[in-house]
Amino acid sequence: MSAKSSLLICFLCAVFFNQAVSAQNLGIFDAQTDVGNVKLTGSALYEPGSQQYKVTGSGYNIWFDHDAFHYVYKRIKGDFILTTSAAFLGKGVEMHRKLGWMIRTSLDSNSKHVNAVVHGDGLTSLQFRRTVGAQTEEIKSSITHADVIQIERKGNTYTMSVARNGETFVTEKVDDLDLGDEVYVGLFVCSHNPNVSETAVFNNVRIVVPANGANGYQKYIGSDIQILNLESGNSRIIYQSSQSLQAPNWTKDGKSLIYNSNGLLYKYNLKTNIPQVLNTGIAKNNNNDHVLSFDGKWLAISNSEKYGSIGYIIPSTGGEARQLTPTGPSYMHGWSPDGKYIVFCGDRNNEYDIYKVPSKGGKEIRLTDAPGLDDGAEYTPDGKYIYFCSVRSGLMQVWRMNPDGSNQTQVTNDDYDNWFPHVSPDGKMIEFISFMKDEVAPGDHPFYKHVYLRVMPVGGGPIKVVAYLYGGQGTINTPSWSPDSKRLAFVSNTQLLFPVFPIAQ
């Protein structure tokens, strides 16, 4: 090979490498550009470690009949949900500087568009242009200074949902806005002053393509396993699959997650990012009710069989399964701290209640007998209480009782269906998943819904939203706290994956 040929190959490799780096630096987006007449060139940088985007933009405004701003985007067809946490860096110059999500028909400055926007002075609104070159219209939100911004498309209806950190969404929507099937979607920053640039940071950036009628019990969509840092509020996607991944259960040593998929259990190594099938012996049709003992040595699993789910026990490292419950359905949920008992949700005589059974085998003991579904039972680390969820007061709510079933007391009482309370290893906090009551029946926790992950102090107190996501069944069916009580693992879902690294098949 000649020196000239070698140089050409090196040059082409360098070009390819630079293009790959450029694409990687934009994360889930494909490109970036300044839209309109912008004096100062903008930029968008992606930090793979935190999965954070930093966008800098100038531009006179996004208003009237034309726009000027910086945009990082990709093209999508059909329905979708866009979500992010966002904030400006620094005080800024103009009170009407803007950040948010933008959906456009084209990259022309006078394009039809809709955007969910937060201004520098806190004004939060849904803005849109119905036809090319038309005047921009606005619907103001009842809240200001939103930290979380979401916009969802269903056909020609666009719904903006916004919240301050820790609070639930407030929504506004516009109907009959025809932007075409394939649109540009992305993050934007506008300084509202052509002579200055402003920078915003976007975390928890998610593009979700919803299930479009698939209910999750017959047809699955893709999954993202995420880890949320509770102190920073930042959540990272650590693993993606076109398959249904469900119920990550953190191991006691903090090194792995155990989750289920297609009837098998997997142990996911957090250092190597490689999952391996966990040997479950004769139990080959495992569902998402599996729970580790407090000492980390044993795993209670639930295997779907002819007459319903049956409880088994295996070593946490894998091994032959020992049957625990003689009848089903039986869904394993929690160990006592001393390892002597396992609590589970059992259907006996067409009534779902909480039972406990000796882990070495023996007679099951009924702990609840109120009419309606009781589910998701779990011991506190000190063994003093069992938390569970129940529909006995109307909606699904979190309850607590003594280990013998006495003193059953309602813990949450709000306008959501609250499922699967998990107590942190330090015994200070409770995590649970909340469904919207207008989307689900109180006794159901289906796949593929808008849900919140929320936490509250064990002794009572304010409830805080820590994650806004699309998920439901399989998101946190099992205890998902890290051993140090500082992080949460969970699953979110999307029909079309937007990879932050190669997708597992």
CATH topology of the largest domain: Neuraminidase
Secondary-structure-based class equals: mainly beta
Return Rg in Å: 25 Å
Tally of separate domains: 2
Main sheet makeup: 7 strands, antiparallel
Strand percent estimate: over 45%
Strand order of the largest sheet: 1-6-15-8-9-10-11
N-to-C terminal Cα separation, in Å? 39 Å
Write the CATH architecture name of the largest domain. Answer: 6 Propeller
CATH superfamily of the largest domain: TolB, C-terminal domain
Helix content, binned percent: under 10%
Shape descriptor? elongated
The number of strands is 39
Key traits:
39 strands; 47% strand; seven-stranded antiparallel β-sheet; Jelly Rolls; mainly beta; disordered N terminus; Neuraminidase; 505 residues
What features would you describe in this structure?
With 505 residues, the protein is mainly β. Helices cover 5% and strands 47% of the residues. The protein has one helix at residues 3-25, and strands at 31-35, 43-47, 52-57, 62-63, 66-67, 69-77, 80-88, 98-104, 113-119, 124-129, 137-140, 148-154, 157-163, 170-174, 182-190, 198-208, 222-229, 235-241, 246-250, 256-261, 264-269, 274-278, 291-292, 298-305, 308-315, 322-323, 330-335, 341-347, 352-358, 365-366, 374-379, 386-390, 397-401, 409-410, 416-423, 429-436, 449-457, 464-471, 487-494. A hairpin with a 2-residue loop joins strand 12 (148-154) and strand 13. The protein is elongated, with a radius of gyration of 25 Å. Mean pLDDT is 93; it is low at 1-24.
